Amino acid sequence: MADVTERGEDNPTSTFIFGDTDEPHDVGDTNCSAGWCGNEFPKPCKCGGLIHANFGDENADCDYWLYERCNKCGEDCEPI
Ligand SMILES: [Zn+2]
Ligand SMILES: [Zn+2]
Prior knowledge:
The chain has 80 residues and is mainly β. The protein has a domain at 16-70. Helix content is 0%, strand content 28%. It contains no helices and five strands. The strands form two sheets. The protein has a three-stranded antiparallel sheet with strand order 3-4-5, with no helix packed on it. A two-stranded antiparallel sheet has the order 1-2. A hairpin with a 5-residue loop joins strand 3 (43-44) and strand 4.
């Protein structure tokens, strides 16, 4: 069985896209910096995947929300 490599320099990393942006997030990359990732995200998910985030929208009170999507279980993600 192939080892799971954390860094995808030698093998193509799969990416996924969600929310309002077409910026690809790297599946399984804890250092993903696409979209809203890079600070608090990606977060580990209960399913063992990683939850990535994209900026959603902001209201007049400067409250913003994010698209959060797990690269394994999708929209049903729950941070650990
Ligand atoms: Zn990401
Ligand atoms: Zn998940």
